[in-house]
């Protein structure tokens, strides 16, 4: 089982920046894909960005151009850099790992880190 621990959230003003970290208990080089999701109050969890084992990235249209997902395989950590933060970015941000096995695909979630954007 892959354990994921997020950190780096907090309270920031609009226009500010945050760098979120997701530390994995396993080598992320062996994980098919790592991603970031977010869930705002009263809304469904949505994909923000993900990165595959091969390095391909995908971003939600709502944040494209303001965020960058990256990884450090040596540290087993995936990062999410968010710039030009807006109040609508306020949400709990979750790290997700996807592991493909011979029979099924396994999904693992972290506990989340709160991001609040407010003046």
Give an overview in words.
- With 119 residues, this protein is mainly β.
- Helix content is 0%, strand content 53%.
- The chain is built from no helices and eleven strands.
- The chain has strands at 4-7, 10-12, 18-24, 33-39, 46-52, 57-59, 67-72, 77-82, 91-100, 105-109, 113-117.
Defining key terms:
119 residues; mainly beta; seven-stranded mixed β-sheet; four-stranded antiparallel β-sheet; 11 strands; 0% helix; 53% strand
Brief synopsis:
By secondary structure, the chain is mainly β. 0% of the residues lie in helices and 53% in strands.
* Number of distinct helices: 0
* Overall average pLDDT: 95
Task: Count the E strands.
Answer: 11
Q: Approximately how much helix is present in the residues?
A: under 10%
Q: How large, in whole angstroms, is the Cα Rg?
A: 14 Å
Shape: globular
Poorly predicted runs: none
State the end-to-end distance. 40 Å
Q: Per DSSP, what share of the residues sits in E-state strands of 2 or more residues?
A: over 45%
Q: Sheet bearing the most strands, described?
A: 7 strands, mixed
Strand-pairing-aware structural class? mainly beta
Helix/strand order, N-terminal first:
EEEEEEEEEEE
Helix and strand arrangement:
Elements: E1 4-7, E2 10-12, E3 18-24, E4 33-39, E5 46-52, E6 57-59, E7 67-72, E8 77-82, E9 91-100, E10 105-109, E11 113-117
Parallel strand pairs: 2-11
Antiparallel strand pairs: 1-3, 3-8, 4-5, 4-9, 5-6, 7-8, 9-10, 9-11
């Amino acid at each position: 089982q892959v354990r994921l621990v997020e950190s780096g959230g907090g309270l920031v003003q609009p226009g500010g920046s945050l760098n979120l970290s997701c530390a994995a208990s396993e080598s992320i080089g062996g994980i098919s894909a790592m991603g970031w999701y977010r869930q705002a109050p009263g809304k469904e969890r949505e994909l923000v960005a993900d990165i595959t084992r091969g390095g391909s990235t995908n971003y939600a249209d709502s944040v494209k151009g303001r965020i960058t997902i990256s990884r450090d395989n040596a540290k087993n950590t995936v990062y999410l850099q968010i710039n030009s933060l807006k109040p609508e970015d306020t949400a709990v941000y979750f790290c997700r790992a996807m592991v493909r096995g011979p029979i099924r695909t396994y999904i693992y979630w972290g506990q989340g880190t709160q991001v609040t954007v407010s003046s």
